[in-house]
């Protein structure tokens, strides 16, 4: 009986709103750090094919010979996948709880309603677009299953081939998705800092600037390579 009660308490604690928000904040931080690192790697395209392909190959050798070739990448991918799944589960669960807890007769001030609508569309529908984009991005530039402009063993050539002017729709989808990532980041960073208790009186302006700054850097950093290819700056 005691063990059953203890198990129930642990289950309730892990599923509490505070635990779910903390899980979202931690997994969100992991994903933000990954995006910054990935953006840095993408920008190496401006250093030429040798530098870009060399960087991509070096990632496969991280941890070697302690790990087999590509071993670190697979570990990292599993951590990212777990972070994404936990992040989505926590977000959906919290959204469902908030919706059930909201009385049908509740009246909102206009400003609060606008803020809620912004957060809802940015995080919910933006998250859906980001998820679709990630799937397409992997199939396009990682596994080479989708290959507009031609498949290639060279990461540099895959990127350049895929964003040629005749494939403007690929670039357009990429641009829209990256902008969605930016909005998702801005609101997510702000919410994460609030969850971790950093968002205190007098700090809102600074934290908002940090959230906007990081989201802008990531957005612009990810948009530069495909747009540079589309407009002929990289070939």
Automatic annotation (TrEMBL):
<feature type="transmembrane region" description="Helical">
    <location>
        <begin position="167"/>
        <end position="185"/>
    </location>
</feature>
<dbReference type="InterPro" id="IPR034804">
    <property type="entry name" value="SQR/QFR_C/D"/>
</dbReference>
<dbReference type="GO" id="GO:0046872">
    <property type="term" value="F:metal ion binding"/>
</dbReference>
<keyword id="KW-0479">Metal-binding</keyword>
<dbReference type="GO" id="GO:0016020">
    <property type="term" value="C:membrane"/>
</dbReference>
<keyword id="KW-0408">Iron</keyword>
<feature type="transmembrane region" description="Helical">
    <location>
        <begin position="74"/>
        <end position="97"/>
    </location>
</feature>
<dbReference type="Pfam" id="PF01127">
    <property type="entry name" value="Sdh_cyt"/>
</dbReference>
<dbReference type="InterPro" id="IPR011138">
    <property type="entry name" value="Cytochrome_b-558"/>
</dbReference>
<keyword id="KW-0812">Transmembrane</keyword>
<feature type="transmembrane region" description="Helical">
    <location>
        <begin position="118"/>
        <end position="139"/>
    </location>
</feature>
<keyword id="KW-0349">Heme</keyword>
<dbReference type="InterPro" id="IPR000701">
    <property type="entry name" value="SuccDH_FuR_B_TM-su"/>
</dbReference>
<keyword id="KW-1133">Transmembrane helix</keyword>
<protein>
    <submittedName>
        <fullName>Succinate dehydrogenase / fumarate reductase cytochrome b subunit</fullName>
    </submittedName>
</protein>
<feature type="transmembrane region" description="Helical">
    <location>
        <begin position="12"/>
        <end position="37"/>
    </location>
</feature>
<feature type="transmembrane region" description="Helical">
    <location>
        <begin position="206"/>
        <end position="234"/>
    </location>
</feature>
<keyword id="KW-0472">Membrane</keyword>
